[in-house]
Amino acid sequence: MSIRINDVAPDFTAESTAGTIKFHDWLGDSYAIIFSHPRDFTPVCTTEFGAVAQLAGEFAKRNTKVIGVSVDAVEDHLKWKRDIEAFSGSPADFPIIDDTSLTVAKAYDMLPAEFYLPVEGRTPANTATVRTVYIIGPDKKVRLTMTYPMSVGRNFAEILRALDAVQATDGVPLATPANWVPGQDVIVALSLNNEQAAAKYGDLDIKLPYLRFAKAPK
Ligand code: BEZ
């Protein structure tokens, strides 16, 4: 079954480039991004992991741990890490899970439809994971999911922006509008009337009775 927003992220224990990881323990009080990629030593994946390596400081500022997954073994991940670092010019110190057992890929619905063919129809290509991203909150619940096909590299600036939006609206009666970026106004939820909204968030910019902007709290 697919994982939905607000589901508890499946827990697992797996080997990784940073040793054995018990996922929920590893998460601690942080946000986390778990993201799958098809295979080590492939071109698009190398650019993606390089992008994540370059953004390490940005994720840390947001109290967010990042962890990669693919169906390759730790020894391959460790060799491939050298290529990622050479390509990106940044240390790739986030863990990469050894999911040769497909445990994580199955729990997180990271496999393409072709994987579910009869066994004789399986090839290395259809046991490769697609490009799935989950943002998980400190309460271990899924906040955001996205899935890209193997041929399309993800935009990690957008993932960072989405993380900012998730954190700006987590547990408060606020939402972010289309194309929002940090620093822009946010939308006040309809659960607050105008008086309550103004008392909580200051002056409102009321565009429509149901579309009311306020300055994002610092
Ligand atoms: C890649 O990362 O370049 C890739 C991996 C699997 C299928 C297609 C592209």
Topology (SSEs and partners):
Elements: E1 13-16, E2 19-22, H1 23-27, E3 31-36, H2 43-54, H3 56-61, E4 64-70, H4 74-88, E5 96-98, H5 103-107, E6 131-136, E7 142-148, H6 156-169, E8 174-175, E9 186-188, H7 194-201, E10 205-208, E11 211-214
Parallel strand pairs: 3-4, 4-5
Antiparallel strand pairs: 1-2, 3-6, 6-7, 8-9, 9-11, 10-11
Bound molecules: benzoic acid (BEZ).
The site of benzoic acid has 9 residues, from helix 2.
Structure description:
The mean pLDDT is 95. The strands form three sheets. This protein has a five-stranded mixed β-sheet. A four-stranded antiparallel β-sheet has the order 8-9-11-10, with helices on one face. It has a two-stranded antiparallel sheet with strand order 1-2. β10 and β11 (211-214) form a beta hairpin. The chain has helices spanning 23-27, 43-54, 56-61, 74-88, 103-107, 156-169, 194-201; strands at residues 13-16, 19-22, 31-36, 64-70, 96-98, 131-136, 142-148, 174-175, 186-188, 205-208, 211-214. With 218 residues, the protein is α+β, with helices and mostly antiparallel strands. The radius of gyration is 19 Å and the shape is elongated. α2 (43-54) crosses α4 (74-88). It contains seven helices and eleven strands. The longest helix is centred in the middle third of the chain and has 15 residues, at 74-88. The protein has two domains: 13-154, Glutaredoxin; 174-214, no CATH class. It binds benzoic acid.
In short:
The chain is α+β, with helices and mostly antiparallel strands and 218 residues long. It is built from seven helices and eleven strands.
